[in-house]
Amino acid sequence: MARSFRKGNLVPCKNLDIDINDYRDFEPFEGETDVIPRSMPPGVEPLMVVAVDMQKQSNETNHYTMEYMTDLLVVRRAQQFAIGVTFNRPLVPSDDFQLEFLIGSDPSSNSNTRVVVTFGNRGGGGSWSGKILGASGAVVSLGITPNPSAVVGLYRMYVAIANANGMRRTEKDPKTNFYLLFNPWSPDDDVFYPDEAGRMEYVMNETGLISQGAVGSISDRGWVYGQFHEGILDACIYLMDACRMPVQQRGDVIKMVRTASALINSHDDNGVLVGNWGEDFSMGTPPTAWTGSIQILQQYHNTGAPVSYAQCWVYAGVLNTFLRCLGIPSRVVSNFNSAHDNNGNLKTELVFKMDDTPDRERTIESIWNFHVWNEVFIKRSDLPPKYSGWQVVDATPQETSDGYYRCGPAPVIAIRDGELCFPFDLGFVFAEVNSDVHFMRSDRYGNLTPYKVDTEYVGKVLLTKAVGMMASEDITRTYKHPEGSAADEQTMSRAEEYGCSRDYADVPASKIDIKISAKAGFVGDPVKVAVTILNQGEQRKSVMVTLDISTVYYTGVPSSDPIRVGSFDLDVEGLQQETRTFEIPAKDYIPQLKPNSGLEITATGRTDDETVTEVQKLALKPPPMNVVVTGTAKVNHEMFADVSFQNILSFPLTNAKLSLEGAGLMEQRVFQYKTIASMVTISKKVAFTPMKSGRRTLLVLLDSENYPDPALNPAPSQTHTHPSTPCSHRAICRERRLLETPKSFISNRLNQPETGREALPALLQPPAGEEEEGGGCDGRRDACLLLSSAGDDGRRRRRGLDLEMEGCQESGRDEMKHAATRKSSSNSRKRHITEDIKNKELLQEVPAKTRALRAKLC
Questions:
Q1: Is pTM beyond 0.90 here?
Q2: Is the CB of residue 819 less than 8 Å from the CB of residue 230?
Q3: Which of 239, 418, 509, 767 could in theory staple to 491 by disulfide, Cβ–Cβ 3.0 to 4.6 A?
Q4: What's the pLDDT tens digit per position in 524-547?
Q5: Where in the sequence numbering do the catalytic residues fall?
Q6: Would strands 527-535 and 541-553 be described as parallel, antiparallel, or unpaired?
């Protein structure tokens, strides 16, 4: 039976779908015996409420919540919002009324789930403040400022008027319900972020990049967070309800974040996602097939059952949606060469046999090519001020923390400085970025002897999406001091003082060194490898080099038997180096590649008295895919995405799936292909109508069950409110992935039409000195759709939205609501969609609605 976070049977744990009547319409004052309102004195007209206006548009503009696709008001705590109350007559000094705000199934004042706001000179109000902003006849404007620590979620509101013997309340009206969120714009809130550019990125941006691959062959995968999409805010609140998080704790950001890291996985609390690091995904969706969080959260909300399947980047993407949706600044971080230390120390052992080949059976600890987690920017009110700021939170179920599979929040600055005595889970995260790698040789009796220690391999680089750009930012120095520096030595010593044991193996210094040079090309290309032996001594050395080439999953687990094992001799003169190059043909490695696997090259050089080993992992690139976006980049104007892909591999791709999705551009569209034969090109033209202005990214994914190295490519078609700019360009961010699932690949390149090339916005041009393939081995390029509204005159809102956008925004909201209708009708009409399927296979459009869970895995 799944455990829950519920503290006791009487603790309210439900926020949504509250059907009970909170109050009687009339509540007598204490000591009064009448249960009905007493008549007012003759000549005095009783005060009554005629209407309540939540002033949604003006409030949401001031609270940066206009993006939420909901009919209810969304505001942030610690900031005033206004409502208009129309009474039956103008107020007089003797009138006495109050507003009452309730959240949860059993609201009470002592749990801060029932708040009373009074006006005028009468005291007795709660922790929220209120004042009369103005009056015009019978219409009164009231300002309400929620407490900076107010409970976050869906509130119900009543207007209560005092008469002679009690309080008379308005009837329950769902239209006056509203959502209250965390406020990163308020210095009084524990989630305050200090600059506007960061708030726009870490709270408001609906699309991100997740770095994947391997050191030396890193690529970026796009992810649609979709935190403002219709229904996602309710889905996030439902998640807390389903896992029975006490409502009264939902204003504490530390508890919220820590609980969320457990709720996203389903290991022990009936959370959102089921993990699967195997090869069989037939009972769900392969982790590589997801383009974002929207479908996952919708499916969980609709079915109440965990969604299959996830791996680390899926957990991180969904957690990021949850956090940003509630107003908590967050970002996704990828740690390359991430240690999973089962022993709780700073030592990861790689065992080698007597013949210098890896002994994978005896190597029980793993180093992942990369691991993805989240950071949140919050105040740690439970710690000294130094430890506020970015905190690690990890939803991937690896180890338990206080009885649940969760991790964090762990202060990043404490990880950097080795101060591991603070909560939460600092030792585990510290080991992920700081473990020493011990190379061990086994003798015939199974005894292990260390012959090399590498203190720089783990935590090689940590990346996150850069602010305001579709590019990665290196944040390694926020986690680690420069290797070997005095500060680094102090960090390691301090970590040992706090209980992280470190093995100082007695390994003699070696006068030879070994280096591997290999470049990751496309799958199907031969892989060229160079092994270099450096002799740092003065005497000539005869070195026997043993080479092992295998396919491994990104988690470091081998996916097949070695592709090639062999050895050769090199004679190296003193203070010289010798290099041997060779080539791995595609026919040797393609049959061995498994879902989401790459190549691992291990080279060991041995002389009579010295042994050295080097390991390099390669993430091969998928075949390129082209995306062309055409049409006028304007809200509520039809545009087209032309997608083409040629299977340049020597084998057919089976059960392929083409997915397109873009926050504010289109809901997910999915097309299936039974087979894409070798050297065959498929193409698809998909119509879409942008629903929101601003920077927008179109994500395109091609996924196949037998493609060995899945990859994804986001097509950043981005929008900024802009005078009507024709968009005759198209774009795609190239993306690749080399994760744990067999199924997907995507890549993209920027294609521009031969005509109109000169008219492209400057934003599309590459930075000075940057080649068209981009500044990294993934070849990613960004492109922008400058979406504008009808009648745009170039004016901007604070958030970069056009001042004339209101009508279009509402139309966009209606467009989003009827997306399902459009999708179903497109099956019969098929207008605006053309297809060129050279392999003669039938293409079917698959509804983007989430599917019911086919099996529940324990």
A1: no
A2: no
A3: 418
A4: 899 999 999 999 999 999 999 999
A5: 312, 371, 394
A6: unpaired
